[in-house]
Amino acid sequence: MKWYLVHTKPRQERAALRNLDRQGYVCYLPFILQEKLHRNKRVVVDEPLFPRYLFIRLGSGENAKSWSPVRSTPGVSCLVVFGGRPAPIDDRLIEALRERASGARHTPIPLFCPGERLKFTGGAFSGLDAVYRMTDGEGRAMVLVELLSKPAQMTVSPADLRKAS
Fold first, then answer.
1. Were 144 and a residue from 4, 102, 131, 148 both cysteine, which residue would form a disulfide, CB within 3.0 to 4.6 Å?
2. Is 112 domain-assigned?
3. What gap in Å lies between CA 111 and CA 156, rounded to an integer?
């Protein structure tokens, strides 16, 4: 038995995992907690670590479960292949991902990091650049904005900010 990589349809990782589990396949879909904006509010969501991919454990002998149903499973696009053959994944990688995921489950990836460059997308300061400092106790973003050649600290809604590209 070896691990392989399944490419899923867009935003269908959970459905593919559910459907493969129902068919008796052993699968692994690592998740990560992440802060996002939803309806202009900060929320923590559980998202796949590798969007559009999940791992599946398959055998290669006569007694092994057939691979053909995997391709026609709802939510699955295809098995990842190189040179026409499914590419095996090292067991150590899966073990490392499981260890990392178990430690990271309690701390979400923040929406913005201190020192990160941002751009105002709404409000009176639309188009201005800012530097993120921290989140205040009410979930608003504290930023530094250069006004009249001096840095000024402001507290704004995170919905009015985007990462500068």
1. 131
2. no
3. 14
Q: Give 38-52 pLDDT, tens digit per residue.
A: 887 778 888 998 999
The count of residues in the chain is 165
Give the Cα separation of 34 and 12 in Å (integer): 18
Beta strands in the chain (DSSP E): 2-8, 26-28, 31-38, 41-48, 53-58, 76-79, 81-82, 85-86, 88-89, 117-120, 129-135, 141-147, 150-156, 161-163
Q: Which domain holds residue 121?
A: 117-163
The tens digit of pLDDT for each residue in 53-63 reads 999 999 877 77
CA distance 52 to 11: 7
CB 87 within 8 A of CB 81: yes
